[in-house]
Each structure stands twice: as C-alpha cells, then as structure tokens.
Amino acid sequence: MAKSDITGKRRLAAQNVSHSNIKTKRWQHVNVQTRRIWVPELGRFVSLNITTRDLRTIDKIGVTAYAKRYSVKLG
C-alpha cells in the first residue's frame, strides 16, 4: 500500500458514478514517490516515500521544517 512517510497520507475510498447514477466502489491512490533528499542538518541523504505534494512543500520550506511540522524524526 502506498503511504507517505511524513504525512501518512494513503489511498481514499471513492465511487465511480455512471450516467445512470449507479455507484461502484473504487480507490483514489496518492502519488507516492521514493526520493533521496539531502538533509543539511544531518549532512547526508535520507530516502523517503513522499507524495508529490510533500515534495513541493519540502522544496519551499525545507525537509527539516516539514518533518518538524508533522513530528517526524528524520535521523
């Protein structure tokens, strides 16, 4: 199962709705990528499974600030 290491986001239950309004269950998967991210405070790379939305936020505020926001230890 795809799950983000930092935020814990994972698949959601949803429904396909046909033209005749018949509903069938389906899954909405998050876009999880495995990335090696440089952590300057540790002086090394850390491999994380993160969503693409997490990756954009990490580019903006930094990986340590983002991990601290969700109370996750990187090292």
* Annotated CATH homologous superfamily: Ribosomal protein L28/L24
What is the percentage of strand-forming residues? 35-45%
Radius of gyration over C-alpha positions, nearest whole angstrom: 16 Å
Order of helices and strands: EEEEHH
CATH topology grouping: Ribosomal Protein L24e, Chain: T
CATH hierarchy, class:
Mainly Beta
Decide which structural class fits the backbone. alpha+beta
CATH architecture: Roll
Q: Largest sheet, described in full?
A: 2 strands, antiparallel
In what order do the strands lie side by side in the largest sheet? 1-2
The gross shape turns out to be: elongated
Count the strands?
Answer: 4
Low-confidence stretches: none
Task: Name the average pLDDT.
Answer: 95
Report what the structure shows.
The chain has 75 residues and is an alpha+beta fold. The chain has a single domain, classed as Ribosomal Protein L24e, Chain: T (Roll), CATH 2.30.170.40. 23% of the residues lie in helices and 37% in strands. The protein contains 2 helices and 4 strands. The protein has helices spanning 52-61, 63-69; strands at residues 12-17, 23-28, 32-39, 44-51. β3 and β4 form a beta hairpin. The longest helix is centred in the C-terminal third of the chain and has 10 residues, at 52-61. The protein is elongated and about 55 Å long. The protein starts with 11 loop residues before the first strand and ends in a 6-residue tail after the last helix.
Keywords:
single chain, 75 residues, alpha+beta, Ribosomal Protein L24e, Chain: T, two-stranded antiparallel ribbon, 2 helices, elongated
